[in-house]
């Protein structure tokens, strides 16, 4: 698809307003849609304003399609595209999360001017979170200090991380597929085909690669001043393996609709389930309440509590609906049998028979329209995944539960794995704990 940019020029005053993001930052238990970015460092100054307009339109489209979901921009804040999308995202009310490829001081040396370094520092100060990804196996911090293979591999690692973690990836790219290690073409490939094993957590050899949709904003660059596609147009690209782009679009849209459904339910039932949240919070590993949970762990507890109480709520509704259906059918059969064999002249029993069937049918319709059973199963699976992630963190394990959670049920549970991965962003960079004590506490808590 392509977008005309003449009327999409962004209002610069939006860039300095944080008010639109207050609700996002105040509500840590909402499940955000993560928008990642990759792109060229050197943008044509003449096209920057138009690029801002195109990117702003993409953010507006996501907000329109998924109005209940907050947004998170995942950007490593390199010069050029990374900062442009971060700037537009902040203006649109999104939170900014900054994964860094290596030590910030080494990273800042990439920025040639004092002005660029100050801009980087300003973005980091405005970010809701920033963290450094762990070094790749076999590499020391010194290998990232200067230009070379070690530095390039860690750029590729942060690109692979963004490609895996984002629900939507925006690429400000000229379309040149010649690969430079850790460059834009590399990240685009990771997004559409999966990242190589050395850059991602270990998984089963036959696991399908993590991939997803890509918004390619055609961006002229110094090496490709005249791109293959119309400059400033937007191409939506999907991974292979689907019957058509339409089928891929439907699949990925369903995943984000599940995010939005969860957020609607959380917001709608927040007040009603306040007491249930207190009980859920008290029920999770009481023995661990004697120890100090860190910020990440406390936040994950709250997110578990939200998923847990929603699961219990829809579980009760599903059970009551089942009881209502069974009761309606039972009453209908009883009325019909009494009429047919005992009281054939009591015609009102036929009315009771029909009324009971209608009640059972209405209960089924209401339960189906409300998706009680589906929501119960989904939210229960989400809560249990978060519970395991919490105790892994407490035990000193930094693995992402989403990489290990029911991997063979790919299509059915994709949105749940994405939700766990989204709520675990930054877990890879957590500091190590006393593993023996923490592991024994976690094991005991899981058992009880």
* CATH class label of the largest domain: Alpha Beta
The CATH topology of the largest domain comes to Rossmann fold
- Give the domain tally: 2
Secondary structural class: alpha/beta
Shape: elongated
Total E-strand runs: 7
User: What is the H-and-E element order?
Assistant: HEHEHEHHEHEHEEHHHHHHH
**Tally of contiguous helical segments:** 14
- Portion in beta strands: 5-15%
CATH architecture of the largest domain: 3-Layer(aba) Sandwich
Rg over CA atoms, rounded to whole Å, is: 26 Å
Strand and helix map with partners:
Blueprint: H1 22-26, E1 33-39, H2 48-65, E2 71-74, H3 81-91, E3 95-100, H4 104-108, H5 114-126, E4 129-132, H6 149-165, E5 168-173, H7 184-193, E6 214-218, E7 234-237, H8 245-269, H9 274-283, H10 295-341, H11 348-369, H12 372-394, H13 410-423, H14 435-447
Parallel strand pairs: 1-2, 1-5, 2-3, 3-4, 5-6
Antiparallel strand pairs: 6-7
Task: Outline the structure in words.
- The chain has 14 helices and seven strands.
- The longest helix is centred in the C-terminal third of the chain and has 47 residues, at 295-341.
- The chain folds into two domains: 12-248, Rossmann fold, CATH 3.40.50; 277-447, no CATH class.
- The chain is α/β, with parallel strands linked by helices and 448 residues long.
Q: What is the compact description of this entry?
A:
The chain is an alpha/beta fold and 448 residues long.
Summary tags:
single chain; alpha/beta; Rossmann fold; 2 domains; 7-stranded mixed β-sheet; elongated; disordered N terminus
């Amino acid at each position: 698809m392509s977008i005309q940019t003449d009327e999409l020029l962004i209002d610069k005053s939006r860039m300095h307003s944080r008010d639109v993001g207050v609700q996002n930052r105040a509500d840590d238990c909402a499940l955000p849609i993560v928008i990642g970015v990759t792109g060229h460092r050197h943008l044509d100054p003449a096209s920057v304003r138009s690029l801002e307009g195109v990117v702003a339109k993409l953010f507006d489209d996501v907000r329109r399609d998924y109005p209940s979901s907050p947004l998170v921009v995942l950007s490593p804040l390199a010069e050029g595209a990374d900062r442009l999308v971060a700037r537009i995202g902040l203006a649109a009310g999104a939170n900014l999360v900054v994964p860094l490829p290596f030590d910030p001081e080494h990273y800042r040396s990439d920025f040639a001017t004092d002005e660029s370094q100050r801009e980087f520092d300003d973005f980091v100060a405005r970010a809701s979170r920033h963290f450094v990804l762990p070094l790749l196996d076999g590499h020391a911090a010194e290998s990232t200090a200067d230009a070379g293979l070690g530095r390039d591999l860690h750029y590729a690692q942060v690109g692979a991380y963004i490609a895996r973690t984002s629900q939507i990836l925006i690429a400000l790219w000229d379309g040149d597929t010649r690969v430079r290690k850790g460059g834009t073409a590399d990240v685009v490939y990771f997004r559409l085909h999966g990242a190589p094993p050395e850059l991602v957590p270990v998984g089963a050899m036959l696991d399908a690669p993590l991939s997803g949709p890509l918004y390619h904003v055609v961006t002229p660059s110094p090496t490709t001043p005249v791109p293959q596609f119309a400059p400033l147009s937007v191409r939506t690209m999907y991974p292979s393996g689907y019957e058509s782009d339409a089928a891929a679009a439907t699949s990925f849209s369903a995943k984000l609709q599940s995010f939005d459904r969860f957020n609607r339910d959380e917001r709608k039932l927040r007040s009603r389930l306040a007491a249930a949240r207190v009980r859920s919070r008290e029920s999770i590993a009481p023995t661990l309440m004697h120890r100090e949970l860190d910020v990440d762990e406390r936040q994950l507890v709250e997110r578990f509590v939200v998923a847990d109480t929603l699961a219990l709520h829809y579980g009760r509704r599903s059970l009551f609906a089942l009881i209502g259906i069974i009761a309606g059918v039972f009453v209908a059969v009883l009325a019909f049998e009494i009429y047919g064999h005992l009281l054939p002249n009591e015609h009102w029993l036929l009315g009771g028979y029909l009324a009971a069937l209608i009640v059972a049918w209405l209960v089924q319709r209401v339960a189906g329209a409300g998706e009680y059973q589906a929501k119960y199963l989904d939210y229960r699976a989400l809560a249990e995944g978060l519970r395991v992630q919490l105790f892994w963190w407490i035990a000193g394990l930094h693995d992402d539960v989403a990489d290990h959670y029911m991997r063979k049920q790919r299509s059915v549970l994709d949105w749940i794995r994405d939700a766990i991965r989204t709520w675990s962003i930054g877990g890879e960079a957590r500091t190590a704990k006393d593993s023996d004590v923490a592991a024994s506490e976690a094991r005991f808590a899981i058992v009880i």
